[in-house]
Write a structure and sequence with these properties.
- Belongs to the type-I restriction system S methylase family.
- Residues 139-166 form a coiled coil.
- The protein is an alpha+beta fold.
- The protein folds into 2 domains: 4-125, DNA methylase specificity domains (Adenine-n6-DNA-methyltransferase TaqI, Chain A, domain 2, Alpha-Beta Complex); 176-355, Alpha-Beta Complex (Adenine-n6-DNA-methyltransferase TaqI, Chain A, domain 2), CATH 3.90.220.
- The chain contains 11 helices and 22 strands.
- The protein has helices spanning 8-11, 90-98, 116-120, 129-168, 198-201, 231-235, 249-255, 283-287, 311-323, 342-348, 356-396, and strands at residues 4-7, 12-17, 32-36, 39-44, 49-57, 66-75, 79-84, 123-126, 181-184, 187-190, 194-197, 202-207, 221-226, 244-247, 261-265, 267-269, 278-281, 293-295, 299-304, 331-334, 337-340, 350-353.
- β5 (49-57) and β6 form a beta hairpin.
- It is elongated, with a radius of gyration of 24 Å.
């Protein structure tokens, strides 16, 4: 297979950044996806691109990441659109750019950035389009299998959320027709339910750590770190975004995450995305980190009193508190950054507590759902590994493609 050298600008019919969009116009749901520096940001009601292309993040911590996009989407000013010309395949171009580690061209500024001008001069070895098409078809099979699993994961998570809402928001739990109601500090609740403070159900907590980039005598222990930025992917079972760092022994041992611990984000929020997001760390998830995981400095590790509350019930209660913006009561804004009033949250934060049997029945049902999510996430991990092993060999022409 013959490869020829081209500059990226020569391969594209379009190589340019998108247009700015305000945070108010980006929603969790909508008609058209919005792509930014780190891929999908949310959804909006209009689009400014229609077709297929590679999207390159051009600013921030994920500068240089590459994703393939097809359809009608909105490209923000922090995304570079690399749309192949008629002699090249946009999906192949996305795969190719993805293995080039474009972040290394971002410079040494405090806020990493890639200019379109610099990207356009990037030299790349490319084969004929016919070969590009065949390689893209092979690799797409892996991506399609991963996407199908992701859809199943989303449906399973929605199933768990709907069960919580049915039982503990609408109060249509087993035996609900015989239930009487009473007034409480959070409104009318079933008589068999109670309301506790966060301090009554949390047995222990500690702030996270960050460690060091490199191993040394003072930082000898290697462990992954889960940050607030990782929560959306972590919830879906994707652990690949969690960085691996080196930690002091004392810091690591006091912060190591155990089965069914909760991690709470306590800093770095915005008006649109307040702090207070949570993730639950199951036994199966920990095993994928070889049981070596801590939370980052802007988070708190929360350990529950399991004689009082079931972990999955607490997790979905916190999801409800966040989604309904009750969490806004505990926001503290200072110099443009929103932090979490954790001590106030401990004293004043409410937790709805159903009867023990009902709570643990819910926990058991949802735990089964999360095991299915974990199995699908592991399958995705294996598919991605197989694809990534094939990718450089296919790109180089070392594997015969028919």
């Amino acid at each position: 297979m013959e490869f020829k050298s081209y500059r990226l600008g020569e391969l594209c019919q379009r190589l340019s950044s998108g247009k700015s969009i305000t945070a108010e116009n980006i929603k969790e749901e909508g008609k058209y996806p919005v792509y930014g520096a780190n891929g999908l940001r949310g959804y909006t009601d209009s689009y400014n691109f229609d077709g297929s292309c590679a999207v390159i993040g051009r600013q921030g911590a994920y500068c240089g990441n590459v994703k393939y996009v097809s359809g009608q989407v909105y490209m923000s000013e922090h995304a570079v659109v690399a749309q192949a010309n008629k002699y090249n395949n946009s999906k192949y171009l996305a795969y190719k750019l993805g293995i080039l580690q474009l972040g290394r061209f971002s410079g040494q500024a405090a806020q990493p950035g890639l200019s379109v001008q610099r990207l356009s001069r990037l030299l790349m070895e490319m084969p004929e389009k016919d070969f590009q098409d065949k390689v893209s078809t092979i690799l797409s099979r892996y991506d399609e299998a991963i996407e199908n699993n992701n859809k199943r994961i989303k449906l399973l998570e929605e199933m768990a959320q709907n069960l919580y809402k049915e039982w503990f928001v609408r109060f249509r739990f087993p035996g609900w027709k015989n239930e009487q109601y009473k007034d409480s500090c959070i409104g009318k609740i079933p008589k068999t339910f109670s309301v506790l403070k966060q301090s009554e159900v949390i047995s222990d907590y500690i702030g996270g750590g960050w460690g060091n980039d490199d191993e040394s005598a003072n930082y000898p222990i290697q462990a992954a770190v889960v940050r607030g930025a990782d929560f959306p992917e972590f919830t879906k079972g994707n652990v690949s975004t969690c960085p691996v760092r080196f930690h002091k022994k004392s810091n690591y041992e006091s912060r190591i995450i155990s089965e069914d611990d909760i991690v709470l984000e306590v800093s770095g929020g915005t008006q649109e995305q307040p702090v207070g997001r949570t993730v639950i760390v199951t036994k199966e998830r920990l095993e994928r980190f070889d049981n070596k995981l801590i939370c980052a400095s802007f988070c708190k590790l929360i350990r529950l009193n399991k004689q009082i509350i079931a972990p999955f019930f607490y997790y979905y209660w916190m999801q409800f508190v966040y989604d309904t913006r009750i969490i806004d009561r505990y926001q503290l804004q200072s110099t443009g950054i929103i932090n979490f009033k954790f001590e106030y949250f401990l004293r004043k934060g409410d937790v709805l507590l159903p009867p023990s049997e009902l709570m643990w029945e819910f926990d058991s049902k949802v735990r089964t759902i999360h095991k299915q999510i974990e199995n699908l996430a592991k399958a995705n991990e294996n598919l991605a590994k197989q694809r990534d092993l094939l990718l450089p060999r296919l790109m180089s022409g070392k594997l015969e493609v028919k």
